[in-house]
Amino acid sequence: MPSPNAAVKVAAVVAGMVAGADSIDDLDRLRHGGMGRLFCGIRAPSTLGTFLRAFTFGHVRQLDKVAATVLVNLAGHTPLLRDADRLCFVDVDDTVKQTYGYAKQGAGYGYTHIKGLNALIGVLSTPTSAPVIAATRLRKGSTSSPRGAASLVASTLATAKRCGAAGLIVVRMDSAFYVADVVAAVGRAGARFSITARLNASVRAAIATVDEDAWTAIHYPNAVWDDQAGGWVSDAEVAEIRYTAFASRGPARQVTARLIVRRVKLLPPAGPDQPALVEGYRYHAVFTDSPLTMLQAETCHRGHAIVEHVIADLKAGPLAHLPSGKFAANAAWLTLAAIAHNLTRAAGCLASVFHASARPATLRDQLINVPARVARSSRRISLHLPTDWRWEHPWRALIAAIS
To answer: Phi and psi at residue 109, in whole multiples of 5°?
Structure first.
């Protein structure tokens, strides 16, 4: 890039995000108090903003490669993805980040009818580890969800394998990504897919063929409120059939796999005290080639909601704002936010069992924003921590692990 000291400036932006910055001006917290005495390479927010605005699409792609390499190195030196060699989940989803004014390049109205930019992310997790971000793409606000998703899925799976995912890999997505190109990308990478199927005429016809004796009752340990049903849902029934998807795409693009259907009985409009005149069900179908059993696969797919937690963490942290009017600068900001998220996760894994699964905001409050006093003696800098500080031992464990 034409800007000198690019590595130092990237590190400064990431450090500011880890500390809680969610805009260019917030990066000035790196220069508050004794920060200048503790760290070198600190740059002014104006310098960092100029640096981000110099990015082009090619520079963002280079930064994506750096982000993937950082995650691979973190997974190799910390217990960031425990048991990834046995089972690894890849969750892909997108979200619209609302923007204001007319100066944002690429801003538009998408499927949410909210003006903004569309962020597509790929997340890695295991049954024993919290999610980390493996790939990101910033897209214009009016784009459709599956656009470019096949490429991001391929990149996410490549990074997952570099992180040690040598066993079963299940890619979970919602119905927006129920397209042949995405399923084909999963198959080419040697992974398994678990995608919410759209309830089109073909899927509904397949569900209608399920025999009444084939339904298996299940009970959710934690009931959930269903706005459509108008009540609490804690019981359902599950059945499985073979199904061929994308039949209109030709034999080469058709995929035959399992269709796992969950049905929930519709509640009467006036509540359970008034019997329904006509019995009915609401259906939810999952198209998958997972080797798990029917009930395991259905439970596994419901775990896709974990990606919503990652999106919420980003929007509550560095993605609270898209700071620039330049599209490439905002794309670089999204990639740097992913690096900051993964670094924060790695720090939590090194600190304690509790912090390994804590939210990034909790990690910032308890381990990163440390209420310490800086002192200098005999040309050595010391940090005086509060007396009887509750998080002293996890913090010392983190410092010992990285020093």
So the answer is: -95, 120
